[in-house]
């Protein structure tokens, strides 16, 4: 075995998932550990055995196996501490935001993320991603400490006992758990994608309804203004009273809008009726006639001539 390792220039042999030996039958785990001990003695290269906390019960079956299994030493890989390394990780990760309103990293957010992940990098990264997904889904579009806690409670239920054991410092409790169950981010996003799509569909329908309402208001405004100008009403006054009539009676018919506009004109008029400037009337007729030759409506002709403001400027949806 040592000759084969040297022939293939093996620098180190790494054996992962040692804890799975606990599931073997007929004392096969002890046989495998004896094989590993022999392997360490004969292969002539460093052998590293890796497993979860449950692997300790396999590696410590007897003194010989524990001594051989540790090789040149053993190490229990703990979660990250809340120090400069953690801060560097979170600050680097925080740049990857996909929400509408970028959230600045604060000490409270940093501390909340650490408490809910207990320094486990995999949990912290997934919690950051899931929090953004929840923010987009709900329309909140920003990350808050309350959101992180809510997501940890709702979407990390399987690992909560383990995280609680880490938080309380009860390392012996960790040996009860096989491992932190890996989360399927793709499955989570696929599940919540339907909700996001539904919200986007609703928003699109709202925008379409608003567009139709705006087009209807513009059409009513144009018809009402033309009708008023045919009665020799000044275009500026016609625009004002027409806009006010539509605003006061948004669901009214054209006849009702016309009646309302005429009443508004009467309210604005002085007791003695002012004379209409004949030259102004002639000018407007010339503009309208010229526009008709270009296949423009009276409303479009007067708007291009500067007598009417753009109606969209007066409407806010």
From TrEMBL:
One Pfam family recorded for the sequence: TniB
Keyword Coiled coil part of the UniProt annotation: yes
Keywords recorded for this protein, A-Z: Coiled coil
Coiled-coil zones: 204-231
Protein's recorded name: Uncharacterized protein
Species this protein is from: Thermaerobacillus caldiproteolyticus
Source species taxonomy: Bacteria, Bacillati, Bacillota, Bacilli, Bacillales
């Amino acid at each position: 075995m040592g000759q084969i390792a040297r022939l293939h220039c093996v620098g180190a042999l790494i054996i992962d998932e040692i804890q799975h030996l606990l599931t073997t039958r007929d004392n096969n785990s002890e046989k495998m550990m004896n094989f590993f001990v022999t392997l360490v003695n004969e292969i002539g290269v460093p052998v590293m055995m890796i497993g979860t906390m449950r692997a300790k019960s396999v590696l410590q079956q007897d003194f010989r196996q524990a001594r051989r299994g540790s090789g040149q030493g053993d190490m229990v890989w703990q979660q990250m501490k809340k120090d400069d390394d953690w801060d560097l990780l979170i600050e680097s990760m925080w740049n990857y935001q996909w929400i509408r309103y970028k959230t600045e990293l604060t000490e409270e957010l940093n501390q909340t993320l650490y408490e809910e992940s207990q320094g486990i990098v995999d949990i912290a990264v997934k919690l950051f991603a899931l929090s953004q997904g929840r923010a987009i889904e709900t329309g909140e579009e920003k990350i808050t400490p309350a959101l992180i806690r809510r997501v940890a409670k709702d979407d990390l239920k399987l690992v909560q006992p383990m995280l609680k054991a880490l938080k309380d410092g009860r390392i012996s409790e960790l040996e009860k758990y096989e491992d932190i169950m890996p989360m399927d981010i793709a499955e989570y996003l696929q599940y919540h994608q339907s909700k996001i799509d539904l919200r986007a569909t609703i928003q699109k329908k709202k925008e379409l309804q608003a567009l139709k309402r705006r087009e209807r208001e513009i059409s009513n405004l144009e018809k009402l203004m033309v009708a008023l100008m045919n009665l020799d009403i000044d275009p500026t006054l016609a625009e004002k009273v027409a806009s006010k009539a539509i605003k006061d009676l948004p669901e009214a018919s054209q006849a009702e809008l016309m009646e309302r506009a005429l009443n508004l004109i009467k309210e604005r008029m002085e007791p003695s009726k002012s004379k209409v400037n004949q030259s102004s009337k002639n000018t407007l007729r010339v503009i309208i006639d010229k526009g008709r030759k270009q296949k423009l409506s009276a409303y479009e002709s007067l708007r291009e001539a500067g007598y009417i403001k753009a109606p969209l400027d007066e409407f806010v949806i």
